[in-house]
Amino acid sequence: MELADLRAKIRDIKNFPTEGILFKDITTLLKDGPAFRFVIEHLAERYRHERVEIVVGIESRGFIFGGALAASLNAGFVPVRKLGKLPGKTIEVEYELEYGRDALAVHEDAIRSGQRVLAVDDLLATGGTMAATLRLIEQLGGRVIGVTFLIELAFLHGRDKLKNYPLHSLIVYD
């Protein structure tokens, strides 16, 4: 399998979740074992020599890639979730959406100061969710060594909000 083959594994769904949106459905890639394995192996190889200690995955599809990638890198996995979804003490951050505000949370003891952290999500759109996640990581003292995505929608310019971090996307839609 090649990186170019992955595009064929992603299904477009018109008008989801709202009218005018072309949704990139990755469930068709996830159900293909060799394709899913290829994604994880490709990402793991890219970060294998970075001494990643923690992989942070963003709710919810970031959990799928983050957990598998953490296991492959022999690193811990930390979930970043919407408010009210984590038990125990958390820290939170609010961020702007195109249509309002949202907030994310992480356990306050999830990352130790100085730990090498890789942040992962399935899709980079406008960059707000990942930018908020990176703020959480840094508030805990984590050192962001990379930010990675399966898909990047380059026409939404999300990369601009993440320009201070090493960023990698497997598939880019211009």
Write structural notes for this entry.
The protein is of the alpha/beta class and 174 residues long. The chain is built from 5 helices and 9 strands; from the N terminus they run H-E-E-H-H-E-H-E-E-E-E-H-E-E. The strands form 2 sheets. The chain has a 7-stranded mixed sheet, with helices on both faces. Strands 1-2 form a two-stranded antiparallel ribbon. Helix 4 links the parallel strand 3 and strand 4.
Compact overview of the structure:
With 174 residues, the chain is α/β, with parallel strands linked by helices.
Note the topology.
Elements: H1 3-6, E1 11-14, E2 22-25, H2 27-30, H3 33-47, E3 54-58, H4 61-73, E4 76-82, E5 90-97, E6 100-107, E7 116-124, H5 128-139, E8 143-153, E9 167-173
Parallel strand pairs: 3-4, 3-7, 7-8, 8-9
Antiparallel strand pairs: 1-2, 4-6, 5-6
Helix pairs in contact: 3-4
> Which secondary-structure class do the elements indicate?
alpha/beta
Task: Please state roughly what percent of the residues sit in beta strands, choosing from under 5%, 5-15%, 15-25%, 25-35%, 35-45% or over 45%.
Answer: 35-45%
Give the fraction of residues assigned to helices: 25-40%
Please give the number of β-strands: 9
Compute the average pLDDT. Answer: 96
How widely separated are the two ends?
22 Å
Evaluate the radius of gyration.
16 Å
Q: What spatial order of strands do you see in the largest sheet? A: 5-6-4-3-7-8-9
So what's the overall shape?
globular
SS field, number of helical segments: 5
Main sheet: strands, sense, barrel? 7 strands, mixed
